[in-house]
Amino acid sequence: MRVSATAQAYFTGVPKPAKLLVSLFFIFLCLIAFFGTVKVSQATINGFVTGSYLGLGAMGLTLIMGVMKLVNLAYGDFLVAGAYFTLMFTALGTPLPLSVLLAILGTALLSILAEKLVWRPLRNAGASTLQCFLSAIGLSFLIRFTIQFFGGSESRSFDIDVLSTMVLGPFRVGTQQALGFVMALAALSMLAIGLWISGAMKTMRAVSDNRLLAEVCGIGVGHTIDLTSLLSGLLAGAAGIVYATAVGSFNPNFGLTLLLSLFAAATLGGIGNIYGAMLGGLVIGLSQEWSALLLGAKWKPLVALVFLVLMLLAVPRGIFARAPRRP
Amino acid sequence: MAAIRNRMLPFVHGTCQAVPQDLTCIDILKALDFNRVSDTKWALPMSLFPKAAIFIGCLVGIALVSVDAGIANAKDMFIGALIEASGPMSEMGPSVEKAAKLAVSVSNIAAKEAGLDLSVYLVSADSQGNPQAAVSAARTLVDKGVSCILGPATTPESIAVLNGVTLQRRITLWPQASSTRLRAVEDGGTIFRTLAPDDLQSKALVRAIETYVGARKRVAILFRNEPYGDALSRTFRSDWEASGGTIVSSIAFDPTQQAFDSEAAQLFDENPDAYVVIDYPDTYARLGAALVRSGKFDPNKLFVADALSFARVPKSIPARAINGAYGVAGGSPRGTPAYRLFNELWRQAGGAEAGSYAANVFDAGILCVLSAIEAGATDPELIRQKVREVTREGARQFTLETLAEAVKDAAAGRPIDYIGVSGAFRFAPNGDPTSGLYDIFQYRNGEQVTVRQIDVR
Fold it and tell me: N or C: which end of chain A has fewer CB within 10 A?
């Protein structure tokens, strides 16, 4: 009883992200006790790989949901666009690293075009959430079928060695998967530093909290939304490429299958928080891979979503959400 | 005029197809004498309205009648094909479409040689590997007046098309899906398969493993968690255990997930002597890479089911994930004149290489046409009733080489026994073949090489 009371007292003052990390570590230790270090550690490595592209994608999605208040169902197709832009540039003879950069920029351009041609006119016309939601579905189909028309519907892959593996003692991880994980961390770091230096995160948070008040205070709301579109496009492009690199092959429908996990990661992290989205992605990735040990691989997607529901019951506004302001 | 007007009444009431085809639009307008013009000035536009409406209706009606006449003409026959042009089975789409086209062109030539005034047309639609899309595609085909439907390639699609479209209209469905689950649904005798069901494929897999790895070995199964994978894995487990072997693990995976590294690692947990993978090409591109990355993968221990059978390995599948692997798929008797002729026709046609079940699709198309000729009609239900009349054991036998003679006999109403390129068809009461010839193949340098043929009953 006394131990329990002490633990309760300890956890009361601990921030939510730290609680989550402690809980994850506790689950990790329990799994090791049942399945052994090698199996669980390998599953954890696989979970980090899955979490890297989920987290990267969720970062862009959470910005859109936070700043633009938009449930963008077309977002998964921006990831697909990133992967197919890379294919297109490599087919034109551009070296792969340059193709990756151009593809990320191309996806950002596509995101800005969507903002200028679809979302802004809808906002100006006072479109409701439902109307924006339906427009997002339409845009999703438009992007997907355009890609399918030009890129074909069959599975494609980059001209890279997806079989190359790094062996670390008893653990193995695909070289491209490790590269994808590093790319995700690098993107998160660069974004965090860029936003911190420029102060853009503060303006985004202001617009997210109260758009009218932000405008009255002299914040360029239009520019902030443009910046959000640009960043979400860059992140979507990078996430699509990391996915295509880590998984090895892809088709124009992969955005649709990823979308639910991306929304789950963004919601779990707390809407509008990029660090939360990254952590949310990693938590989803880990829960999927760990659940395969416990219940079998076919339950992976279900367990991840059940875990999400449980987490949201515990922390409804997400792990990194700020407490609502009191008037 | 009164007579014409009486004949037009159904048209006026909206039943456009009742319009006699010998009427011209002018006849119709002349016949419709609406002398109800009022004396009042404002009534004039109202009086014009019915005539204008009838005139437009007349144009639309005649257009519909002319389209309908083309379909309803007994000399024309439309065969539908649900092609996997996109989706997880898109690798087999081009081969299936080419086989269906070849069946249609060969039928037309045979009909002409037999002096029969029959033109067969192919109407195809993309079923996308998705049950909902397959139903929509099947409705498109039915709207175009098809008499039977070749495809689709997966069991969920076939069940959806059966329940949503073909069962009510009594249209025969000739799926390339081999799952035994397809027999769990009530089809009213409308489903015929020219390829053997998976309970036979399971036996072929058992014999392949016994031949190339050994009997009574420890085998692991990795299968996609949907009807095809689930049913085949269960049947295989039962057959393998009945033969004295052991199943060390049976791992189901969700084909919609992104990565398969955990599943790949689990496959090797018990250090099996062989592994059976039941998957589609699209997913195997990712799963195969994960198997190789596990570091424990030996392709010579891998046995794949028919959905992973292709003449040439797709680019998306890493070579190291499949070269050396064995597999089974429905085969055709090699060396027969019909087989040689089919291969020659296939080569001359150019385009896609023959994939698994190309000959079976071709045979399904031919059987459909022969049944229509035997029935003397393109009505789907009459065709359904005649399928067994063109594959009747003991009747005069015909092959692809003697197709024109088969057409003559069928047109005379005599039962025939068409021996297809993929073999003779002895349909069980449920519409499945009672035996199957299987190729045991191996992938060598990115190409499929048949190493043996086995007859499974």
Answer: C
